[in-house]
Amino acid sequence: MSPIKLDAIDLRILAEIQREGRITKLKLAERVNLSPTPCWERLRRLEQAGIIAGYHARINLERFAPAAMVLMEVVLKRHQHSDFVRFEEAVCDIPEIVACYATGGGIDYMLKVVARDVDNYQRLVDRMLIADIGIDRYFTYIVTKPVKESPELPLDRLLARP
Asked: Which pTM does this prediction carry?
């Protein structure tokens, strides 16, 4: 599937809804300097093309519940296709794993885990090991302080011409 060509107005629309997903159609049109109907049509086209995958709220967990954020490196025992599929399917069914990335360069996966505390994290790991989803080794990194976590993609940098 080839990338869809976006113009400067499309990029401004995407940048605005990344910053403020609940923006009104009228306010969005004003911010991108377009009349409401063409702005709305562009937004619908971006949604239908799958460029806009959804609208989400960013929850500030610290405000209402204690939580431990953990980064976990995983190395699988074997590296057959079925081993990767089994691990990925299992990970997708675990709500505490909020992100999973297949990686190269020595480890197979990097996971972002949010648990009530470190004890709950370790119990989750124990369940994963008992389930025998292919984990050979894992390494745990407790996040002591989030420094930067942006849900916004740097569209202007990604699409800039050199």
From this structure: 0.83
